[in-house]
Structures are given as C-alpha cells and as structure tokens.
C-alpha cells in the first residue's frame, strides 16, 4: 500500500517537478497492519511504568482511516516502541530526512513528542530500547511547563549527545503538525514545521562538534615589568599652598544666648559648621602614562587537542526508528513517519498526508469544541434551574449548585466521554 501510494505520487509529481527519486527507507502511515512492523520494548515494563500505543485517528482528523496513527496511553508512563528501516541507511554524501507528524490531542502540559533514529550498532539493545539506548538523532517537540522546544540532538563520533543550541519553539495546540529534520552532506541542517522552513544553519554553529581551534598559550605569562596602567598621577603637580583648610569652623553667626550662665553652663562656645573653604584631600591630577604598553594580550596557540572533522553530518549506518517518551498527560498521536534521502519526496508526502487533511481536521476540532461548549451551557442552565427550584431563600444551596456545574465543566474535556455520540452528531 505504501509503495503504491508512493508510485502514484511520483507519477503525478513528474508533471510538475523535476524528478529526484531517492530512496525511501521507512514510510509508515499506520494502516491496520502496523503491529506487524512495530515492537513494544520491555523497558519499564517490570516496574509497571510502561505505557501503550493505541491505533486511532482521535476525535478530530481529516480522514477517519488514513489519519489513524498511534496514541500514547494511559497517563504518566514511559511509552516505548520501535521498528526497522527497510534497509540500512548510510548517509554519506546524501541528504537525510526524518519526518513525522505529532498531534497533542490531550492539550499537552508535560511530555515528550520526539522520535529517535538509531544506528545498526544498537541492534542488540532494541528489545529493551529505552532512555539509555544509543541513538544517532533525536528530533521533535518536547513540552513541559515553560519549556516548549524542538530538539534536534545529534550523537557525534565519540558517542556524545550534542544538544541543538538554537531555539525552535514547538507547536502547542491540539492539531496535527509535521516536523521535518534534514541533514545535508555540506554539514548544514534544516528544520521544517508544517512543510515550511523554520530554521536552517550549519551543524558547526548549532552543536559543539569541535573544540576551539586555538587556545591561550599555557606557558605565556604577563612579564612582571609590563606596564598596564594607562594613567598615573602627574609627578609635576604640587599641592597649592592654601589647600589645607580645617574641615569645620566655628559658626560666625552664632552668639551666646542671653540667659547663658557661665557659672552653671561653663564657658560658651559657638557651634561648629562645615567650612566652605575646605577642599577635601588633595589629589594630583592624572596624566597619560608614558610607559604604558597597552593591555597584555594572552598569546594564542593552536589547540593540541583540536581535531577537525569535515563530515560532522555523517552518522553511523542507521537501522531503527523509535519513540521513547515520558508524558504526564497522555494522548499524543504520531503518524506518517518518513526516513528518506529525498527532500522533495518528503515535501510531497507531507502535503499529501497532512496538507490535504489539515483544514478538515481544524473544522472538526472546532465542531467538537462548539459541541462541548453547547453541552456545558445546557448543563449550567440545568444546574441553575435545579438550584432555583430547591432554593427557598437559602444561599447555601445556590453555592452547591454552582460547584456542581463547575465540576461538570471540567469532566467535559475528557476525551473518553461519549466519543461515539459526538461523532454521530458531527
Ligand atoms: C548546503 O546544501 C543544501 C542542499 O543542497 C543547500 O540548499 C544549501 O544552500 C547548502 N548550504 C551551504 C552553506 O552551502
Ligand atoms: C539558510 O537559508 C537561507 C535562505 O534560503 C540561505 O541563504 C542560507 O544559505 C541557508 N544557510 C545555510 C547554512 O545553509
């Protein structure tokens, strides 16, 4: 089915597009046969913390069958599942595209939504695929509280997971979004969201692949006689003769009070006030230092530990794709995973699977929300009417009724509630 779909697409595309037919290593649309290809991992199973994936299109979609994907369930679990590429993918000299769609139908507040591409060398670890299994690319949205970002972590040749430094915000709504990661053999990358370039750049800038080419010479020291004072006090400057003045003086305006009794109060003295002629401590003026040599600059040397790598894009041979996620609130639906070296095919695939569905999906979500709003209002009205009936001027009853109505509201968002009824009405 996948192959037919592709052939059909390509034959249409030849009319409009120059044909760049590459290799599709994985094209997963999650039809009914998906369980023949995907394996749950044993990771976290013993601790009863392993979640499941359920085959569903959710409560809003463009097409009830074609838009079926796999949904995380139940809440607060580790969800781990994986599959194999048709053939090992060696990306030397080739573009690498990793693409999939994510629908956070649960209105996610905390949970991963990323996919991992793993090397052939992880083969033995795949049955227990989990957080520690070595991967090559980890790509996609991650949302928790104020963190709402798209990861694009690459594992370098030494096995280090190199964070993606630019900030690419993740989509946080309840609709399907397509995330595309492209690695080019000229050591650049592109991230597309919903088939449009969101970010591009060089891998050298986006990740700490290489150590600095130069470092400060550890053997170099600032010479002891180095003069780095730009200014000095002027040796020719002298303190004016009249500089020194007392800080305070006797108040010349004060006079001895008339009722002053020398016998009793002692000799009268005028109070002291600040001396207007006082100039503070004398400082010679500053002049440019004739011996000044400038700031000492630490000499640089070539970093002996620097290792160049002109092929940081080059990953080990790739063989597996999987999800390894933790979510507080489950309900994310993943679909339409593609691994290929054909950038244009990926764009067409996104258009066919997501582009053609997105307006209908949005309409359906709006209808679901409108229906919920209508029911909520009806319940509110019913609760108010009931409260009024029971109310003989007793305020307490009113409050209780309002509380009930408010609780009814919250329950309404639960997607398990009366699914069939909702659909039938749409
Ligand atoms: C790298 O290759 C891609 C794909 O061929 C191209 O679009 C991009 O402009 C290139 N970037 C640089 C910096 O050469
Ligand atoms: C990023 O995209 C812009 C616009 O297409 C292009 O000019 C630039 O070369 C790209 N940068 C890299 C590093 O490929």
Automatic annotation (TrEMBL):
Signal peptide range: 1-22
Intrachain disulfide bonds: 110-144
Record's GO cellular component terms: endoplasmic reticulum lumen; endoplasmic reticulum membrane
Gene Ontology BP annotations: ERAD pathway; protein folding
Location relative to the cell: Endoplasmic reticulum lumen
One annotated GO molecular function: unfolded protein binding
Record keyword GTP-binding present: no
Annotated binding of an alpha-D-glucoside, by residue: 114, 116, 135, 142, 324
Domain of life: Eukaryota
Ranges of Acidic residues composition bias in the record: 391-420
Compositional bias annotation for Basic and acidic residues: 357-390
Positions in coiled-coil regions: none
Cross-referenced InterPro entries: Calret/calnex, Calret/calnex_CS, Calreticulin, Calreticulin/calnexin_P_dom_sf, ConA-like_dom_sf
Principal subcellular localization: endoplasmic reticulum
Short name of one Pfam family: Calreticulin
Disordered as annotated region, ranges: 357-426
Keywords: Calcium, Chaperone, Disulfide bond, Endoplasmic reticulum, Lectin, Metal-binding, Repeat, Signal, Zinc
PANTHER family, per database record: CALRETICULIN, CALRETICULIN AND CALNEXIN
Protein purpose: Molecular calcium-binding chaperone promoting folding, oligomeric assembly and quality control in the ER via the calreticulin/calnexin cycle. This lectin may interact transiently with almost all of the monoglucosylated glycoproteins that are synthesized in the ER.
Family stated for the protein in its record: Belongs to the calreticulin family.
UniProt name for this protein: Calreticulin
